[in-house]
Write a structure and sequence with these properties.
Distance between the termini: 26 Å
Radius of gyration: 17 Å
Number of helices: 2
Number of strands: 0
Structural class: mainly alpha
Shape: elongated
């Protein structure tokens, strides 16, 4: 099995990028919903994209937590 290694810095940068994009999409959703006649198709698409980002963000955070706990083990 081929395992990829990711530096802690790269993982942190990825988490920040995903989080920022999630916030940006959230703002787009809110702005669209404030319109008198929001585009429901656009809102649905943005919500799906935001959920996908949230899943990716959760996975990256889990990986970061797992990597941190493993690095503590290798020091002993």
């Amino acid at each position: 099995m081929n395992k990829r290694t990711v530096s802690a810095t790269a993982l942190t940068a990825r988490i920040h990028a995903l989080s920022r994009k999630h916030q940006d999409i959230h703002a787009l959703i809110e702005a669209e919903q404030m319109r008198p006649r929001p585009d429901t198709n656009l809102v649905s698409r943005l919500k799906r994209e935001r959920l996908s980002l949230k899943d990716s963000l959760y996975a990256a955070q889990r990986l970061q937590t797992h990597s941190t706990s493993l690095s503590g083990l290798s020091a002993t």
